[in-house]
């Protein structure tokens, strides 16, 4: 969409992109005068929306009931759309979402949280050191991306501190799009990968998301935190998701992740989130649980033959086991 030029209107919504034969008028039930906006931030029941070239604040109309509104949503707005201080518009309808990125608090939590709507790329940001890469968190993000139909983009930061070779080797067979940055080095390639897309940036606290966002969108002024020298963790400096306009496209910065629960993803879809392993798994005996003690699990023979990456196999196994853990096991 062309909204990256800080302008948003009806042309930016592929209202009927996904099949659906309902007449277009159904999209605007009562409010003939409603205008379309793009939700860039959500804060305690207040929605910041871009409408044409104005940033306005809105609340949910009562008729929307408990329906959720999230960053990335395209919404129909009525009321005062001037954007003047102390005005509040009302969201009367949420346009059909093209994608929904979800997570749960842990792998057994039934409550899904929607992180972002309508994104088409998940930029998984991981520092190469300080804090060190967390391949299991990356794997979880990959599963979530594939499940939501988003293109994953691996974004490896702080290459001045460590080489990306090991991380890249782990994911080599996935043919992931990736960028490696050190400071502002690598930014051109990152900008190229983000162009024309709505990208969600996720990663642990301190991996350098805000630093990247500030380089890409200097006027955003995202707070850059310090990494605690003792724990190697960043301060929790960003507190909610926010969409920022690029020259072409959007980036949606999210608060530092501590976990990425996948209770909402079925075991089959978890396996599908490991496209480097799912062919091997197809050779498993019927009913194979793919755990380390499953007899004749094809993951074992694949590793033994050097065809599968051991770190990825153990990651998949941990993930499947964590979902079985009804005591609410960890989600790292
Ligand atoms: N050495 C090195 N340090 C970097 C680089 N990029 C960022 N940093 C530092 O890493 C620390 C954390 O960066 P942030 O951009 O605040 O990290 P974040 O991911 O936004 O963290 P949260 O806001 O907590 O989610 C800061 O001290 C940055 O200066 C890099 O390429 N190399
Ligand atoms: Zn198996």
Describe it for me?
GO terms for molecular function: GTP binding; GTPase activity; metal ion binding; rRNA binding. The chain is α/β, with parallel strands linked by helices and 332 residues long. The chain folds into three domains: 2-94, OB fold (Dihydrolipoamide Acetyltransferase, E2P) (Beta Barrel); 100-253, Rossmann fold, CATH 3.40.50.300; 267-324, no CATH class. It contains eight helices and 13 strands. The protein has helices spanning 135-148, 165-170, 187-194, 209-216, 267-272, 278-281, 298-304, 310-324; strands at residues 35-43, 46-51, 54-60, 74-79, 89-94, 100-104, 112-117, 121-127, 151-157, 177-180, 197-202, 242-246, 249-253. The longest helix has 15 residues, at 310-324. It binds guanosine-5'-triphosphate and zinc ion (ZN).
Summarize the structure.
The protein has 332 residues and is of the alpha/beta class. It has helices at 135-148, 165-170, 187-194, 209-216, 267-272, 278-281, 298-304, 310-324, and strands at residues 35-43, 46-51, 54-60, 74-79, 89-94, 100-104, 112-117, 121-127, 151-157, 177-180, 197-202, 242-246, 249-253. It folds into 3 domains: 2-94, OB fold (Dihydrolipoamide Acetyltransferase, E2P); 100-253, P-loop containing nucleotide triphosphate hydrolases (Rossmann fold); 267-324, no CATH class.
